[in-house]
Design a protein that fits this description.
Layout: H1 6-19, H2 31-39, E1 46-49, H3 58-67, E2 73-78, H4 83-92, E3 96-99, H5 104-115, E4 120-121, H6 123-136, H7 150-160, H8 165-172, H9 176-190, H10 195-204
Parallel strand pairs: 1-2, 2-3, 3-4
Helix pairs in contact: 2-3, 3-4, 7-9, 8-9
Length: about 210
C-alpha cells in the first residue's frame, strides 16, 4: 500500500485485515519505496496507490512495474474525479480506479475482482460516466424528432452513405433538383445548419442506423 498519509494507510490496513481475505505485506509513502520493498524480496498481488505522492506517484509506479514485467496489479485510490486522471491511470497500466470515499464493501469487492484479472472502476465513477454518455447521446436539438416522408428517408439514407445529389437522383429515378429539394427540406425540418449536421442528427436520433 502506497499513500503519503499514515492515517489513510492505517485505516485501510485495518479494514482489509479484518476481512481475513487480505494481508498487508508492506506500506510506503511513495512509489519508489514500493519498489524498494519489492526488491527486498517481499511479494504482493495487489498494490493500492495514490496518484498524488511525491518522488513516484501511482501512475508512475504502474508504468515502472509494467516495464519491468512485474505482474502486480496496481489499484489507484484517489480523490480525483476528473476523467483525464482515469484515462491516464489505465494507460499507465493500473487495473482499478477507486475513490477514497468508497465504502468498505465496495473496496473489498473491487479488490477481489481486480485480483481475478477483471479491471474495475468504482460505482460513483461508473455512474458519472453513464450520466455523461447519456447526455451526449441526447438529440442535437431541443425539438421533437422531425417526421419525414418515405422519400425523404430514402434520400437521407443515401446522403448518409455519401452519395451526391446526381447519384441519388439516378438511384431514385428522379431529377437532381428534386433531390436537392429533399435535402433542403430535411435540413429545414431538423433545424440543423448543413449536411454533416443533418447526418449527425439522423444518427443521434436513430432516424438511420
Amino acid at each position: 500500500m502506497a499513500d503519503d498519509h499514515a492515517i489513510v494507510r492505517n485505516g485501510i490496513k485495518t479494514l482489509l485485515e479484518k476481512t481475513g481475505k487480505f494481508l498487508t505485506v508492506g506500506e510506503a509513502v511513495n512509489g519508489q519505496e514500493v519498489l524498494d520493498i519489492l526488491n527486498s524480496g517481499i511479494e504482493a498481488d495487489l498494490i493500492l496507490a495514490d496518484i498524488n505522492m511525491s518522488v513516484m506517484n501511482g501512475n508512475e509506479l504502474a508504468t515502472r512495474l509494467n516495464s519491468m514485467n512485474i505482474p502486480i496489479k496496481v489499484v489507484v485510490l484517489t480523490m480525483h474525479e476528473n476523467e483525464q486522471y482515469v484515462i491516464k491511470a489505465f494507460q499507465s497500466g493500473a487495473k482499478g480506479y477507486l475513490y477514497k470515499n468508497i465504502d468498505s464493501e465496495e473496496l473489498i469487492f473491487a479488490l477481489q475482482r481486480i485480483y481475478e484479472q477483471k479491471p474495475y472502476i468504482c460505482q460513483d465513477l461508473g455512474l458519472n460516466l453513464v450520466e455523461r454518455l447519456t447526455k451526449e447521446s441526447q438529440p442535437v436539438t431541443n425539438n421533437p424528432v422531425a417526421e419525414f416522408s418515405g422519400r425523404e428517408l430514402e434520400v437521407l439514407k443515401l446522403i448518409a452513405d455519401g452519395y451526391t445529389n446526381r447519384e441519388i437522383a439516378d438511384k431514385l429515378f428522379t431529377s437532381r433538383r428534386t433531390v436537392e429539394g429533399h435535402r433542403l427540406s430535411l435540413i429545414s425540418k431538423t433545424g440543423v445548419r448543413n449536411t454533416p449536421s443533418l447526418i449527425k442528427y439522423a444518427v443521434v436520433n436513430r432516424v438511420i442506423r
